[in-house]
Automatic annotation (TrEMBL):
Localisation: Membrane
Signal peptide positions (record): none
Protein known as: LemA family protein
Residue runs in coiled coils: none
Keywords, sorted A to Z: Membrane, Transmembrane, Transmembrane helix
Residue ranges of the TM segments: 6-25
Principal localisation: membrane
Natural source organism: Pseudothermotoga hypogea DSM 11164 = NBRC 106472
PANTHER family cross-referenced by the UniProt entry: MEMBRANE PROTEIN, PROTEIN LEMA
């Protein structure tokens, strides 16, 4: 009778641990998805600002057609969707194209003094700061989630229910590149 009681207690403890571990993994996965949706909101804001900014500067930047086209193409690629991995890469390209555009602004003093462009630049800078904060939060959340699905013994439950790791938001080569400012006219 005592042996049966011990076996039932062990099974009950294992069942409680199993359910707790599964629920913990689901909770962490939902936090990662929430963190991604926070980035998505800021990226949408940036995507909405870019056409207005490009239209505002087109008249001033007649000789920078290539830079403007790079921004427009990178935005179109970023908006097209896809997996989180694809979107992270596309957003990296867009960030690189935007940094080159911002560097080109230095050549046009009248452009920098235009009120509409100033306002759009302030909104874009504010949005970029929000995206940076959201990326940090996302990466922190992904790190905790990915660690939990790899560490023993939770990795056993993670493998049973096919929990997959999420990708990190990393700076691309284009983002790491220092924009070149050419002030010659």
């Amino acid at each position: 009778m005592i042996v049966v009681g011990i076996i039932v207690a062990i099974v009950l403890i294992l069942l409680i641990w199993f359910v707790g571990t599964y629920n913990s993994l689901v909770s962490r996965k939902k936090r990662v998805e929430n963190a991604w949706s926070q980035i998505d909101v800021q990226l949408k804001r940036r995507h909405d600002l870019i056409p207005n900014l490009v239209n505002a500067v087109k008249g001033y930047m007649k000789y920078e057609k290539e830079t403007l086209e790079a921004v427009i193409n990178a935005r179109a690629k970023a908006v097209s969707g896809g997996s989180i991995d694809d979107r992270i890469k596309a957003e990296g390209e867009l960030s690189g194209a935007l940094s080159r555009l911002l560097a080109v602004f230095e050549r046009y003093p009248e452009l920098k003094s235009n009120e509409q462009v100033k306002q759009l630049m302030e909104e874009l800078t504010s949005t970029e700061n929000r995206i940076t904060y959201a990326r940090q939060f996302y990466n922190d959340t992904v790190m905790k989630y990915n660690a939990s699905i790899e560490m023993f013994p939770t990795n056993v439950v993670a493998k049973m229910f096919n929990f997959k790791p999420f990708p990190f938001f990393e700076a691309t080569a284009a983002e790491k590149e220092t924009p070149k400012v050419d002030l010659t006219f």
